[in-house]
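Contributing new records

If you add data, match the layout below exactly. Sequence lines come first and carry their own label; structure lines follow with theirs. Keep one chain per record. Anything else will be rejected by the validation script.
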Amino acid sequence: MKKQLQLLWKLQTLEQQIEEAQRKQVAYPLELERLQALFKAQEEQQEAEKRRIEELEKERIAKEGELELENERIKRSQLKLLEIKTNKEYQALLKEIEVGKEHNSQREEEIISMLDEIDQLKSHIIFLEGRGYKITEASNGDDAVALVGSKSFDLVLLDEMMPGKDGLTTLEEIKEIILLS
């Protein structure tokens, strides 16, 4: 009798193991499909961010070209200062030089902002993807608010100084969306 109970116990254990193996046999292909879809989505997101980096690089190069042209124009205007005979011409040329320098200052700030965004994108992408996170990037506060309104995120990283809405305003709007959902 004792031996029969032991055999019955072993048989029941084997049946449970077989059932578990059958469940796994069904679950693994589904899990594989889910992981493949997740992998594809992450690849697409990474490609989108790479395209954004390339776009920023092209824009930076164009801005640097504009900056160089404006510098040339300023130099020509400064050389003309030596040839001016009237005070009115002199004042007009000084104003032209001043405006050119202001434009250059704005372009330099735009270039620095682009370089910062490129560096941040690259470092964040590398860090988070290395840890298995899916990255979704928004180029400004309005886009970030729209993304948070359309899908769920575990983490949102904001820069305090962004194009359009600043980071704090964007954060407040995101908090409202989360509280209302």
